[in-house]
Structures are given as C-alpha cells and as structure tokens.
C-alpha cells in the first residue's frame, strides 16, 4: 500500500483508537515527534 489513508490497518487504528481523527489531540500527542536540540557530541 503506497498511501497511508488506503491502508486498512491504519484506517482500523483511527476507527478504533484515535477516534478524533488524524488531526485530533490524541493522535497528535501519540504520533507526532518534537525536535530537541542536543549538543554536538553524545556522551
């Protein structure tokens, strides 16, 4: 499946768990990433 909105598993997750849709608060909280600035070297 090349398009996520046509993937039956993705559609099922939104139907059963993320009922507020792809732009809803819960889906944003669980699925979106956030940038965290880090130093040049990892200790």
What tags apply to this protein structure?
2 helices, 0% strand, 43 residues, single chain, mainly alpha
How is the secondary structure organized here?
Blueprint: H1 8-16, H2 25-31
Question: What report would you give on this structure?
Answer:
The protein is 37% helix and 0% strand. The protein is mainly α and 43 residues long. The chain has one domain (1-43). The chain contains two helices and no strands.
Write a concise synopsis of the structure shown.
By secondary structure, the chain is an all-alpha fold.
Seen as an oligomer or otherwise, the chain set is single chain
List the secondary-structure elements in sequence, H or E.
HH
Which parts are unreliable, with pLDDT below 50 for 5 consecutive residues or more? none
SS element count, helices:
2
Total of domains = 1
Helical content class? 25-40%
Beta-strand portion reads under 5%
Radius of gyration: 15 Å
Work out the number of β strands. 0
Terminal-residue CA separation: 40 Å
pLDDT averaged over residues: 89
Sheet of most strands: none
Shape: elongated
Helix/strand class? mainly alpha
């Amino acid at each position: 499946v090349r398009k996520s909105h046509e993937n039956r598993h993705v559609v099922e997750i939104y139907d059963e768990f993320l009922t507020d849709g792809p732009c809803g608060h819960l889906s944003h909280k669980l699925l979106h990433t956030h940038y965290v600035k880090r130093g040049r070297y990892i200790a």
